[in-house]
Design a protein that fits this description.
224 residues; alpha+beta; 4-stranded antiparallel β-sheet; 5 helices; 7 strands; 41% helix; 25% strand; rod-shaped
């Protein structure tokens, strides 16, 4: 009985010491893990589909020009004179005019409200397409002929009026041919490819929603 009693008394401090050692090792292991974590931090987790990040990616493109129409035509400009005075004061200008009409989407108009994610699909709503600029290719444009009357040397603004008329005709032809609708199609394809290049392999599918052209939107000064 004495031996058993002594053994029982020794068991208590041994168990207590074991508990202290185990807890100490766990604590020491936690401290060491913390130290290792300082010098070897875990890799950061990136969320590509955060609206602010997507918006920054898209707005970096700013004015997205996706469509250009090229035109070339012969334009005639002349003074409107009675037949009797035409022989004396006529002024007729014939030109070959080459012009271009650019159209695209102003991505700087997008806000975070235009970017939505339902957990399965990332949806971007684009601003309405618009004309960006209309301009003439002066190197490709030239005067074919200039016919003046007996008492006139030619009005200095006749060629300028011919150019203005050509720009308006090119603009109208581009709009009637559906240049803004084509912008929507090409912009959706361009942005889908652009954003997919930055997306993770297992990222959400991207859906681009376009906005119909606004028929009342003002044209840029170069297209007026």
């Amino acid at each position: 009985w004495f031996a058993l009693g002594a053994l029982g008394c020794l068991t208590v401090p041994v168990v207590a010491l074991a508990i202290v050692l185990i807890m100490g090792l766990n604590t020491l292991g936690g401290v060491l893990d913390g130290v290792r974590g300082i010098f070897n931090p875990p890799p950061p987790v990136y969320n590509f589909y955060a609206p602010a990040l997507v918006l920054d990616r898209v707005q970096s493109l700013s004015q997205l020009t996706v469509t250009r129409y090229n035109f070339s035509n012969v334009v005639t400009s002349e003074r409107d004179l009675p037949y009797v005075l035409s022989a004396l004061y006529r002024d007729r200008l014939t030109m070959v005019i080459v012009g271009h009409v650019n159209a695209g989407i102003d991505l700087s108009k997008m806000t975070e409200d235009d970017i939505r994610s339902d957990g399965e699909t990332l949806t971007l709503r684009l601003p309405a397409p618009e004309l960006q600029d209309c301009f003439l290719n002066e190197r490709g444009s030239y005067v074919i002929s200039r016919d003046t009357g007996l008492f006139t040397s030619g009005a200095p603004d006749l060629d300028l009026e011919a150019r203005r008329f050509a720009v308006q005709e090119f603009r109208n032809a581009a709009l009637e041919d559906g240049i803004l609708e084509l912008v929507n199609e090409q912009a959706a394809a361009t942005l889908t490819g652009f954003l997919s290049a930055f997306a993770p392999a297992d990222g959400q599918p991207i859906r681009i929603v376009t906005t119909p052209p606004d028929p009342l939107a003002p044209h840029p000064p170069s297209c007026q």
